[in-house]
Design goal:
The structure is a homodimer of 256-residue chains. By secondary structure, chain A is of the alpha/beta class. Chain A has one domain: Rossmann fold, CATH 3.40.50. Helix content of chain A is 46%, strand content 12%. The first copy, chain A, has 10 helices and 5 strands. The first copy, chain A, has a 5-stranded parallel β-sheet, with helices on both faces. In chain A, helix 1 packs parallel to helix 10 and helix 2 crosses helix 10. Chains A and B meet through helix 6 of A and helix 6 of B. Chains A, B: It holds the Pfam family PPK2.
Chain lengths: 256, 256
């Protein structure tokens, strides 16, 4: 059970626990990744269940980097990533879950969402495109939708990459000066930093309303990239261990 | 409000009311179709809402004929029909609503479902592929799904084409002898006729559990094709009148 503060973003840590050191954690993450390779192969071979990994976080929380760090090395035949952009005209002419449902993993697959259906109760709300009442209605639809997925054998893992207001401001500033990061800079990035408190509120509302026991939000301390990767890799590994996917029996008799 | 017998298929009529005569009804249906042409054009031009028409019925209840009679003459640019067949391997590797959601009408469109997501709580149940418990779970998912559609501006109309056990048997027999109907004959059609009572039970359960006030099942007396077409055309016309779609204002100033 979650404590009342579990989803208070001003209280949830953005940094690793005190006793957690970088070098041993990096080594541990590497070990976990080796195990993930094996578990993913079994999931694919079994071809009976699937995993959906939802990644959310404010701008510059490091979603792209996390995907690179955790999922590189897995067999891309069994792992796909879908990045949700602003909806197209065609997508806007349907209900908000239409384009999301289309991207669901088939049996055997791990699907990673870089942003997700939650944008439709986050950015839309901060920008006043939907009312609070509409947001509540969407929470119910999201919960029903995720239950549908789970009933069909999809494990749903939801991670919020939690960066502090200061860390976000620092990272957005780097986009202006670092040649390797400039391509990510967008006009308005400075304004986004100012919206941290507004996003905090709508995120907290999401965590409270869309965390059923079967697929609660996991808040990932993300000011340090090495800890963030470790946290998510471990959670994914644990979920896959729990599924315990098995190679199916051979369809052919063994030659004697 | 529905009376307790409203969904009792042994009591719901399969034929037109006594005072309803064929010739005037055919003329009336033709008038309704003219109105549908105009209403559909407005819906399309308005480009803000949509309509989903779900057609279910036992084998030989006349779904294909109904579609031909009611929807021919409408502009096919604004009306599409999707016939659901047995799910493919790819579809079976997802939740049961995945392939259905993909076929949702975009704004401005009328989408007709020849069979639908309800097959997943009908044929699957009669054939013992899903348990009663799973069926109940699916009812809840279907209701949540249809509410999602309605919240996004889709009017959902659900018609059950109700033929009597005798009429069904007669029609299935015709498939063997009538050259224009032989292509519809399938091995096992005789067995299907024997399943009428089993289908009756699972259909009644669907009507009871999936008839919220916003989109209840409408049971269409369907032993006479002319009455069936009139009933559905009228219900569709009434729904479109209620939507009262409007041509959008011109984007250009009128030349003076």
């Amino acid at each position: 059970m979650k404590t009342p503060d579990a989803y208070d973003l001003l209280k949830v840590p953005t940094r690793s626990p005190k006793d957690c050191r970088k070098e041993p954690t990096l080594r541990e993450t590497e070990k976990i990744r080796q195990e993930l390779v094996e578990l993913q192969e079994r999931l694919y071979a079994e071809n009976r269940r699937s995993v959906l990994v939802v990644l959310q976080g404010m701008d510059a929380s490091g979603k792209d980097g996390l995907i690179r760090k955790v999922f590189s090395g897995l067999n891309p035949q069994g792992v796909t990533v879908h990045a949700f952009k602003e909806p197209t005209d065609e997508e806007l002419a349907h209900d908000f879950l239409w384009r999301v449902h289309a991207q669901m993993p088939r049996h055997g697959m791990i699907q990673v969402f870089n942003r997700s259906h939650y944008e439709d109760v986050l950015v839309t709300r901060v920008n006043g495109i939907i009312t609070d009442k509409e947001a509540k209605r969407r929470f119910a639809h999201i919960n029903a939708f995720e239950q549908l997925l789970q009933d069909a054998g999809t494990t749903v893992l939801k991670f919020y990459l939690h960066v502090s207001e200061e860390e976000q401001r620092k990272r957005l500033a780097e986009r202006i000066n670092d040649p390797a990061k400039q391509w990510k800079y967008e006009a308005g990035d400075e304004d986004k930093a100012k919206q941290w408190p507004q996003y905090r509120e709508v995120y907290e509302d999401v965590f409270k309303h869309c965390s059923p026991e079967s697929c609660p939000w996991q808040l990932v301390p993300s000011d340090q990239n090495w800890y963030k990767a470790y946290f998510v890799a471990q959670a994914l590994r644990d979920a896959l261990r729990k599924l315990d996917p098995q190679f199916p029996p051979s369809k052919h008799e063994r030659p004697s």
